[in-house]
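User: These chains co-purify. Model them together.
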Amino acid sequence: MPKQGRYWISDTTLFLGPAILLLAVFFVAPIFVNIVVAFTDMSQSVRFEDFPTTRQFNKLGKVNEEALLGFELRGSFYRALALTGTFVFFTLFIFNLSFALILALTTTAVPERMGAIFRAIWLLPRMSPSIVYALLWLWVIDSSERGLFNQVIMAFGMEAMNLRLNHPMAVIVIANGLIGASLGMIIFTSAIRSIPDHLFYAARADGAGSLAIVRHVILPALRWPISYITIYQALALLVSFEYIFLIMGPSRSTMTMAMLSYTKSLAPEIGGGQYAYGAAIALILIVIGIIVALVMWRLANMKALLQQPRIEVR
Amino acid sequence: MATVELKNIRKAWATAMAVDGLDLTISDGEFVAILGPSGCGKSTTLFMLSGVYLPTSGDILFDGSRVNDVEARHRNVGIVFQSYALYPHMSALQNIMFPLRFQKVPDAETRAREMADLVQVGELLDRRPSELSGGQQQRIALARALVKRPNLLLLDEPLSNLDATLRLTMRAEIRRITHELGVTTILVTHDQLEATTMADRVICMNAGRIEQEGSAEDLYLRPRTLFVAGFIGSPPINLIEGKRPELKLSGIPVQSGLEDSVTIGIRPEMLKAADHGLPATVSYVEPMGRETLTTVDTVIGPLRMLEAVAVPRWRRDEQILLNFDAEDSMVFDTSGKRIDGANVRLLEIPGA
Amino acid sequence: MTRDWNQLAAVSIRDRRMKMAALTLFLVAVSAPIVLPYFWMVMIAFTARTGGADADTLWTACAILVPVTLGYSIAYASLSVRYRAITGAAALILATSLLWFFLGDDLHLNNFRFMINPNIVEDIRGAATAGGQFPWVWNAFGNSLILAGTQTLIVVTVSTLAAYYLSRFSFQGRATFLQSLLVLQAFPAITLVIPIFLIVYWVGLLNTLYAPILVITALELPFFIFIMKGFFDAVPWDIEMSAMTDGASRRQAFWMVVLPQVRVGMIAIGVFAFIKGWEEYVFVTGLRTGNSYWVMSTYLYYVREDVMGVDYGMVAAVSLLYVMPSLILYLFCQKYLTQMTIGGVKG
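Assistant: Joint model of the three components:
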């Protein structure tokens, strides 16, 4: 038997050490730094004089006199809150849940290889670099007659539209939704796959049609995955800003909380370096996220799901 | 109830032929067992009958009409699966009532309860499948299959997940219930005892084809192929290379040239210890309760001998003499077919 | 009860056909809008000249490519492996020849000249403009490769080691550790971009490639550790025990016996990590104050925003170059990725 002490480093250090080090410095520490910074007055100079102070939070509720790109952002925080709610709600329920479910159901109902092709197509946006995906969107919704969307609707005799200006929320909901739907699709598909074949055979022999099978065999087996996707994607959407920023830029019409935090601090070329202000918003997002997660956790008994990371039919 | 006919049915998967030209007729109210090793195509046949699989070619007829294209849900067939396949989120009663939901039966619950009483699970109806034992789940599955009064009842290895005692009870139960309802039943199993005890007729399948069909004793006493002889019977039949100086073949057509390459089959219980015959050394003795299985070494290879004695008669390394009656032997040609009328007897070997 | 089997058969056949037709139609209808922009991009890259692309040309190209691709997809789904390659080659030849026939004059590679001209931006816009600080595209490409590759290597190594330990060793605080990891895994990490910027600044890694490499690795780590743990959990204990009874040490057993069993998992997270690193944008721009280094994402962003936003052709060509490695990797490793979601689905 080799003894533990024979090696020059212990098993724990060798196996767990690198992970702990990376997580501590770049994941756990930032959480605490964020909390601290949110209560300072740190800005561009990356130094702060005042701690603790609730100045950043006081600033949120009030009319904001600070100019951003020449706009005056009045009550931008409440507006951001409302926009975030709308964005998360519609993206989550229309795409990340409903559409993902429909895709999983339809691609598993057609012959296997055909279903696989359609699933691969739906994963295409997720696998493309975000900048490329955003660029494609910009070309699709281009307000001139050259935009792909406008060309299509003009072929049907409709007027060219400026989606970015007139329907900004729809644009970011759909742009995020087309990507978001693929995760649910994959998870639901593998859950449907793990239902024993015999259950489908039994239902068919019992006289159930396709819709009855969906209702009585598939949906009951998807209860856990659906709860999981709801919570996980709600959290992800709450804080996501990459596609919004890349497609809409710092536009007021889609300035969600995460966008506000990012544009105020780090966004390239427009970031105002207001680190404390950004951190304060981020802290609010984190708190909202934790509350949402806890509430849904209770509702869906997520603990059981997360501790047993396997989809199974009992 | 229905008569069922399969005409030259084939089912090809991407890589293999699961069922390869199957012809079968089952008359109204009959209880038929399809017996075969795993992978012989018996379950595939069952699933084709239920409408879950589509045959690659051939016809499936119910009461003389072609039903190949009729979907499973319109076929009015009841199935019991090896895994029972009960809906996990429904109570036992909801499970039994499930098929009636699609038939718009007015008194569904009464009918479901009657059926539950017939299979003797009347008091378990509020429970979920996960709260039921294997035998209880089995009964619920049977009730679910029967509640819609199917034309045809299909049983896919229904007893293989049960323990030995329960299996014995359920064997009789299933027989009683199907008899009571008079439903045409097809049982698929790899267990010969299950097939022979429950069914009126046994169909033995191998590699996607029917090897032989008939009554249990037909298959046991008069196997038509080497496969059937080897598959049916426990402990299995002794198979011996036929061309040996100790053996005298008879009944083989002279000009056929078969003599050189035949295989001899002798069932273990047909071998007897005698005062003259083939010298044998006892190598292994297995008391099996009512019977004793003795394995011996001989010049024609190791043989199994089954004797109806509870206390072993022989000890290890004991020298004995073996013999058998010529009419108890079977002779098979190279293609595995049994040669009718052919048999074999031992030649006395001087000085043995 | 007698049934009219013939009528039931007719109903069944009709139902089946209608169901298949409806499903296929639906899937094609919802998937077409996803694929179309990609075709669009490819065609712009190969046809657009300065000042923009001709819409008719693009639609002709789509009218050729979409049916051919669709036909090939259906053939792919219904044919056996042997014929797939033949159909694929036929589809490719058909598409190329049709494109050549109808659009021969419009096809050109001029938009890809940035690949051989190191000073393309200067040549277009003049040295005095913002283009002056722009690197050659291969510089950004190389940096992206380094970023994604190094990141992949670290992620795979670190998460494999940690997952093995969590799966196989019992130690004090294991449950707590796993739970914390679970919380981190669900934590909206992107909200931490500001404090991460500050830490990177304090550590002195700002404006270096190390920063995004280490940060992305750390943020993805909990997710990948759980996936790898799922793979390790599936390896039977017996195999390790028998290796140890055969005289291997714990570490030798890990290295020689267990690791080969989770190869698929390592490939899966590797592909995933690479694609993530290759596309990274937020943590590159966020952890960089000037233009100290370029990767493909920032390169394309500035190409689009600043430098040649109106030169659709070249922007599309750069996009195509950028998207290719991800797509190729995805297409070839698809089977590993799906195994990951099944083997280690986080719920």
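Chain C touches chain B at residues 1-3, 5-6, 8-13, 15-16, 80 (CB under 8 Å).
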